[in-house]
Amino acid sequence: GGGGGAMLPSCANRGCSKVVHVNKKSGFQHPYCGRTCASSAEGRAPKRPHGMCATCNLQGCDAPVWFDEATGRVHDFCSKTHANAAIAHGEWEPSLKNRQGHRNPAAHCSLPGCTAQRYVDEMTGRRHDYCGKTHADKAKAQGHRPVSDGLRGADNGYSMVWAGRDGEPDYTIGLMSSHSSEYANVKTQFYGGWKHTERKPAIMRIYDIKNPDPIHDGYKHYADELEAQGTEKNIKRRFHGTSMDANCRFGFDHTQRPCQSPTCAVCCIAARGFDRSHVRGGGAQMWGGALRYGTGHYFSKTSSKANDYAAASEREGKHGGGNMPDGTGRTAQFRIMFLCSVQLGNTYNDTAGRLEEVNLRPILKNERLENAFGQHDSVTGLTRDDGGVLNWEENVVYDDRCAIPSYLIVYRMET
Questions:
Q1: For an engineered disulfide with 73, which of 68, 131, 295, 355 has Cβ 3.0 to 4.6 Å away?
Q2: pLDDT tens digits, one per residue of 256-313
Q3: How far is C-alpha 180 from the geometric centre of its chain's CA atoms?
Q4: Distance of alpha carbon 306 from alpha carbon 408, whole angstroms
């Protein structure tokens, strides 16, 4: 492979020219290319797998891998269900024997689970999004879009791309490959921002959002207004936790598309952006917290702070994160939160920890709050370390156009 890394040594079994096996999950480098050579070199029958290299390679599953005693073959997963789930999540490359010789995922049919080559019109040279009309129709019926419709295009290696809500402005939500550089950036920010004492959760999957044109245009127009006023946009990436409709399984079950419920804050924000008229019915109210800085949209650079509000999205599911039985009987609690692009503009740094509306009027611009007469666009609640009283910094904006949802992070709480 490429990347400029060091060459792996050859298998220790005499006469074998293959390189040694490296376990993808643990990183452990074995002395042989595989169990067959190991058994041959040591003059023994294959042993049942054990130790750190013997657990299922689906992220979050610790069950033993499947061992075929008749052939001595050790599989990479505990079951076929988890093998398919890992491939669907973008965590594992499909077996070469099932990939019809097409090593580049971008060349695969856009129907999730199909690894056939996308159809190429011999007359025009055009490469279509699917292997055939049957799979194109099937994908549309399931609410899928071609992976090329994802925010970053087909080369990002999306596992699947969902279409938005029926009858509303067009947008897409793409399940990102764990090999994507942007996936790694979001993951790093999420874990770096987890400051609470609880164990850090396990990220199960990350979606990126291609916002509807009206939402994205509003965000750009807001930026233009700030510039016209001589105000710096002051764009930050911030976390936002909120609630979900009780029947919505989007994100938790990778086979489910965004729901149509008008009460599902997660699916409504993804489809329509932020709406201040719904603020008091979201995660803050259901969590039991009060609004420190009035009716605005609340964000934090501390992911574990946003997790307090994401409690209203919590779902129970299989520990491994799949929607099918995983053979272990283990369950876990899962939550979901946004990572957003937020234009703070001229932000007011608050040290008091709470501002009622009457206190906000001399601070905020009139465009941000009725009857206000200040010069600021947003409020930043400062922490004790920065001269304030909060444990964790909060950012509050008062215009729906200030922020757009960029990513949706599904994670498993660890106890």
A1: 68
A2: 889 999 999 999 999 999 999 887 655 444 444 568 999 999 999 999 999 999 998 9
A3: 11
A4: 13
d(CA 138, CA 199): 41
Q: Band of the pLDDT at 323, cuts 50, 70, 90? A: low
In angstroms, rounded to a whole number, what is the distance separating the alpha carbons of residues 40 and 95?
Answer: 25
The whole-angstrom separation of Cα 257 and Cα 274 is 20
Please name the residue ranges forming H helices in 275-364: 283-287, 303-310, 357-360
36 within 8 A of 29, measured Cβ to Cβ = no
3-state secondary structure of 411: strand
Please tell me the distance from the alpha carbon of residue 384 to that of residue 204, in angstroms, as a whole number: 33
- Burial class (CB within 10 angstroms; exposed 0-12, middle 13-18, buried 19+) of 334: buried
Residues 6 or more apart in contact with residue 251 via CB below 8 angstroms: 205, 207, 266, 336, 408, 410
| Backbone CA torsion sign across 313, 314, 319, 325 | negative
Predicted TM-score of the model (pTM): 0.71
Q: What are phi and psi of 309, to 5 degrees?
A: -80, -25
Give the pLDDT of residue 23: 64
Do residues 97 and 338 lie in contact, with contact meaning Cβ atoms separated by under 8 Å? no
40: nearest Cα among 77, 14, 17, 75: 14
State phi, psi for 132 to the nearest 5 degrees.
-170, 175
> Whole-angstrom Cα distance, residue 340 to residue 238?
5
Q: For residues 251 and 270, what is the distance between their CA atoms, to the nearest angstrom?
A: 12
Across 60-93, b (16+ Cβ under 10 Å) vs e yields bbebbbbbeeeeeebbbbbbebbbbbbbbbbbbe
Q: Which two tokens stand for residue 353?
A: 């920890």
Mean pLDDT of the chain: 81
